[in-house]
Amino acid sequence: MNLSYLLDPAHWDPSVSGSFPQLLLSHLWYVFLALLIGTVIALPIGLYIGHTGKGSFIAINAGNAGRSLPTLGLLMLMVTLLGLGLLPVLIALTVLVVPPILTSTYAGMRTLDRRVVDAAKGMGMRPWQVLTRVELPMALPVLMGGFRSAALQVVATATVAAAVGLGGLGRLLIDGLAVNDYSRVLAGAIVVAVLAVVLDLFLALVQRWVVSPGVSGRF
Amino acid sequence: MIQYLQNNSDTVLAALRQHLYLALVPVLLGFVIALPVGYLGVRFPWLYHPLVNTCGVLYSIPSLALFVFLPVVLGTKILSPLNIVVALTIYTVALLARTVADGLRSVDKLVNEAATAMGYRRLRRLVDVELPVALPVILAGLRVATVANISLVSVGALIGIGGLGQLFTRGFQLFYVEPIVVGIVLSVLLAGVADLVIVLVQRAVTPWARA
């Protein structure tokens, strides 16, 4: 195990192109964009299906379909069709983000106690109020679970983006392999794995913060 | 598309065969390892949370990172299929050990007490009562692990061995859509068929669930 690449201070200088901070930043940028676009698409659909119960077939099967789609193939197909650039990669990553968020939003809203929804209606809440004040807050723990698994998947898959010529931490893996520099490959693997774990911990904290104490039971 | 398949049937079939092997061997190995590991998490309750957390961390390691990292640890050649098999086995165990533990924990305590009262010793109770009752939960986890493995194998193409993934890299290098589409379709079909097989097995081995 050769950690020299990882521990070399020159590779941590933010002003050098290809340094860890720069790769990390571009990696996080792809992850952020994909999660943002994916959530903007999936959340309203999931909420609509969960609230109305219409089209539940889509929500249930989206998860399975998403899991079985081979990421690398999708990415390479998009680049082959659209050419190199950020857009094809974002499309491929967003396609990965949508299913888990859609499925978990739906699952979160279906598994909550329907009597609570009836009670909210009985108290005179409008459908919009039921959705935003009762259903969404109560579905949040499950929804956040889906969001976290989507985030992990995108962090992992964004490394694959380097294989089609983009930046991000995958550069260390792909370039290191190309020139047989295993110290660099090892550094890339470690940094990506640590990033995944840290991001998940961060999202766990976000979850603790956004989920109402009345739902989580953490008074 | 059909033209491509006709001209390259040997390549596609070889890729499919390798894909199947690389995805399913880890599922079997992972299942065999996850059963005792998951059981430990139930037998010794203080082990449950460390087990769940370790599984979570293992599963969050990106596949490409693990694929290129393992040769360094195992001392295998970078082109050895063993790297893919070991990496996917780790993911399978990480997914299934938790499901096995959750499945066994979901067995009604009264059922266990009844079995104990009828004279079942611990091991026979586990095999004859607890595992069958937990089977639907465990098999649901197995379905997730199998489908995830089948789609993950193709990432291995980036380090030279990846079953259908090789169709992706070839198509990408030649800027040629056909092999990529064929690879995606076959990979998704394979996942669907494997999923269906597990569902059918589940129906066959848990007849009481339909009663």
Can you lay out the helices and strands and say which pair or pack?
The complex is a heterodimer of chains A (219) and B (211).
Chain A: H1 4-7, H2 20-52, H3 56-68, H4 71-82, H5 86-111, H6 114-122, H7 127-160, H8 170-178, H9 182-210, H10 213-216
Chain B: H1 2-7, H2 9-43, H3 48-60, H4 63-74, H5 81-105, H6 109-117, H7 122-152, H8 165-174, H9 177-205
Observed structural traits:
heterodimer, A: mainly alpha, MetI-like fold, elongated, B: 211 residues, mainly alpha, 81% helix, 0% strand, MetI-like_sf (chain B), ABC_transp_perm/SBD (chain B), transmembrane helix (chain B), transport (chain B)
Characterization of this structure:
The complex is a heterodimer of chains A (about 220) and B (about 210). Chain A has one domain: MetI-like fold, CATH 1.10.3720.10. In chain A, α2 packs antiparallel against α7, α3 packs across α5 and α7 packs antiparallel against α9 (about 180-210). Chain A has about 220 residues and is mainly α. Chain A has helices at about 5, 20-50, 55-70, 70-80, 85-110, 115-120, 125-160, 170-180, 180-210, 215. Chain B is an all-alpha fold and about 210 residues long. The radius of gyration of chain B is 20 Å and the shape is elongated. Chain B is about 80% helix and about 0% strand. The interface between A and B is large, with 40 and 45 residues.
Outline of this structure?
The complex is a heterodimer of chains A (219) and B (211). Chain A is mainly α and 219 residues long. Chain A has helices spanning 4-7, 20-52, 56-68, 71-82, 86-111, 114-122, 127-160, 170-178, 182-210, 213-216.
Beta-strand fraction estimate of chain B: under 5%
**Overall mean pLDDT of chain B:** 90
Identify low-pLDDT runs of chain A: none
Count of separate DSSP helical elements of chain A? 10
The CATH class of chain A is: Mainly Alpha
CATH homologous group name of chain A = MetI-like
Number of E-state strands of chain A: 0
How many β-strands of chain B, per DSSP?
0
Q: Name the average pLDDT of chain A.
A: 87
Query: Under CATH, the topology of chain B is which?
Result: MetI-like fold
- Quickly give the CATH architecture of chain B: Orthogonal Bundle
